[in-house]
Amino acid sequence: MKSFTRRDFGKTVAAAAAFAGVSLPEIALGQPHAAVRQYPEGFRWGCATAAYQIEGGATADGRGPSIWDTFSHTPGITVNGDTGDVADDSYHLYKEDVKLLRNLGVSAYRMSISWSRVFPSGTGQPNPLGLDYYNRVVDELLANKITPYITLFHWDLPAALPGGWQSRDTSKAFADYAAYIAKHLSDRVHHFMTTNEFTCFTDIGYRDGRFAPGLKLPAAQANQVRHHGILAHGLGVQALRANAPSTTQVGLAENANVYVPIMETPKHIEAARRATRDGNAPFLATLMEGKYPDSYLQREGANAPKVEPGDMQAIGSKLDFVGLNVYTADYVSADGSAQGYAIEPRQTSYPHMASPWINITPECVYWTVRNVCDLWKPPAIYITENGCSADDVVTSANRIEDTDRVMYLRNHLTHLHRATTEGYPVKGYFLWSLLDNFEWCDGYSKRFGIHYVDFKTLKRTPKLSAEWYRETIARNAVV
Ligand code: PNW
Questions:
Q1: The predicted structure's pLDDT at residue 97
Q2: CA dist., res. 387 & res. 224, Å (int)
Q3: What does the alpha-carbon distance between residue 479 and residue 473 come to, in Å, rounded to a whole number?
Q4: Dist CA 12 CA 14 (whole Å)
Q5: Is the pLDDT of residue 27 over 60?
Q6: Cα–Cα dist 128/118, whole Å
Q7: Which of 173, 269, 308, 339 is the most buried (most CB within 10 A)?
Q8: Which of helix, strand or coil describes residue 279?
Q9: Which atom of ligand 1 is nearest to the CA of 440?
Q10: How far is CA 378 from each of CA 289, 397, 460, 479, rounded to the nearest angstrom?
Q11: In this structure, is the dihedral angle defined by the CA atoms of residues 377, 370, 321 and 285, taken in order, positive or negative?
């Protein structure tokens, strides 16, 4: 029997409409309705990765160890004892990865530099072979008309730096490293991000002990680690500005906690705004306001960080853009309390992606932009990461039909589209991630890529989500 097609359906609908004497809008007859979610001209579509998660080549050409090398090699830390020793071997296969980017049609690529590849001891003598690798990657991207966006620090702190982020000297070493990169790459790279996700390399690494270096410091010391993290960012901004052309765009990538009002009414919107300032007090709020919010200092009391003259001026350095990494959110409501909001409890039935922490909250991309813009009015915003893990299966036809990832992406880009129509200065979107990679403590057990990687052969295969993203980029609209 002949199957009933979409065209047949269109005819049936048209016939029914004609019978009823109504005229149908074009949309009902199978016209591409994506046009209603058209992104602004010049919107930048990209993919994101990070050095330790994709490069491998852990000891190649003089690279020094980072705290993630040490941590992942510690027995019992990562799933299956996985390490980033080989990862996707992008250190050797980078040309193949740039081809993947070109086939997607992206105009931008967010990548990070392994600090200990360039400065094996974190400071002092640079390793020219390490820098050469990034010269090759940047040149390959530019030859393919892809704009590089470079993150200077995505958690892989050189292991040789005494005391790591417990030491102020590390913030200064970061500034020297930033100056060196600016001197050598800013002729071709015009967008830099200082650090990636403060809470992950400070709190989770030094207070909770779940990420490298795996410490569980008491509050006063943990707050000082936070301070050194944001100080590194500030000194890094100054170093980039002093050593790169004045047109260079400087920002950061921050996983600001996101708060979505339970209903779009004035009182709940105000609750979400207040929660955004409180929930990001030690990091984004401090950077954007150039001082620690009073409420944060009061809350921390004697455990508040020690601040030296000049610190806050560096930390409050003006940014050209704020990059937001966003995966999920909390719902908040106005509750009449002094703080003005309550965070809604999460039911056990709330849906999530393969990583249990990615509760599916597609409104997060819209509200993170709106809350951040309403509070601090940055000149430009990028979504520097958005994406999800999924339990990908390779079919006998060698296809990966990751419809759940497509569902996640389509919904998030639909909500982000709204922010662009309301005039928020969203300039681009970087999908996490270009390819499956070393997902920190989850090792290779959680796949975030839109390209499947067979970790035995390192073969890359586009998933359905890669086809979907290519179509989205080609139309500059959600499809
Ligand atoms: C981000 N959490 O990290 C990182 O920037 C990426 O390196 C990482 O691969 C990606 O998100 C996916 O996880 C996070 O547990 C890791 O809340 C974990 C959390 C948040 C962000």
A1: 99
A2: 31
A3: 9
A4: 5
A5: no
A6: 7
A7: 173
A8: helix
A9: 9
A10: 11, 47, 37, 29
A11: positive
Helices (H), strands (E): how many in the chain?
A: 16, 13
What are the percentages of helix, strand and coil residues in the chain, rounded to 5?
45, 15, 40
pLDDT at 144 over 60: yes
CB atoms within 10 A of CB 290: 14
Asked whether residue 287 is domain-assigned, the answer is: yes
Total tally of structural domains belonging to the chain: 1
The predicted model scores a pTM of: 0.94
Instruction: Tell me the CA distances in angstroms from 178 to 153, 309, 475, one per residue in order.
Output: 9, 22, 37
Residue 24 resides in a domain: no
CB–CB of 72/457 below 8 Å? Answer: no
- Cβ of 384 less than 6 Å from ligand 1: no
Please indicate, yes or no, if residue 20 is contained in any of the structural domains: no
Write down the pLDDT at residue 30.
55
**Which residues are designated catalytic?**
197, 385
Structure tokens at 154: 């995505």
Q: Is any ligand 1 atom within 6 A of the Cβ of residue 49?
A: no
CA of 276 to the centre of ligand 1 (A): 19
Structure confidence at residue 9 (pLDDT) = 44
Degrees to nearest 5, angle at CA 430 with 469 and 182: 140
- Ligand 1 site, residue 325, Cβ cutoff 6 A: yes
Residue 414 lies in a domain: yes
Q: In Å, what is the CA distance from 10 to each residue of 16, 19, 434, 467, 479? A: 10, 14, 37, 26, 19
156 CB less than 6 Å from ligand 1?
A: no
Q: What is the mean pLDDT of the chain?
A: 95
Please report, for the domain that includes residue 173, its CATH number.
3.20.20.80
Give the chain's largest Cα–Cα span: 81
Ligand 1 centroid–CA 128 distance in Å is 30
User: Which residues, in sequence order, are CB contacts of 28 under 8 Å at separation 6+?
Assistant: 10, 13, 17
Domain that holds residue 242: 42-478
Three-class secondary structure of residue 131 per DSSP: helix
Which atom belonging to ligand 1 lies closest to the Cα atom of 196? 5
pLDDT digits (tens, 9 = 90+) for 367-423: 999 999 999 999 999 999 999 999 999 999 999 999 999 999 999 999 999 999 999
Under the banding of pLDDT at 50, 70 and 90, the label for residue 36 is: confident
Give the Cα separation of 262 and 268 in Å (integer).
Answer: 7
Closest CA to 231 of 277, 287, 285, 301: 287
| Ligand 1 in reach of 431 Cβ (< 6 A) | no
